[in-house]
Here is the input.
Amino acid sequence: MKVVKINKYLAGKKLQQSVAPTGGNDTLAQARLGAMYKCIVGSSAQYQAGIATHTSVQSAINACNNGETVLILPGTYTETISVSNRVNIQGMGYDSYINGTFTFASGASFCSLTRIRVSQFIFSAGANGNLVSGFWSTNPTDSGLGNNITGVNIT
Here is the structure.
């Protein structure tokens, strides 16, 4: 059995991950994803195939420490999400869809949410310095703050 070793330098840290391919669809690209992202959210089939580490966006966020990144593979994830720590969440474009409410709760400071479609955003008081970029949303709200949203960069 061949073992693929990947070395990546991310944020000044050397990360190494070993992947033991089982044949078929195991690829070097899958191993690289695992080396680059703390958590990868995908379908049940992707989870069972070892491509994804989680099937729920919220469970992936909960598994991350400050500064770590979650990758959301294309698919529809129907759930209510609340972020209260400093994590980076990256989708793979319009087909990565959170069909529910995404809340930047108090304590969610300097998070990033990029390349994803979300049905509703809520920015709570105490969620400061967050970056939302390359997104699609049908109903963004500000949790009763009126036009006084601060520390949020939407591009």
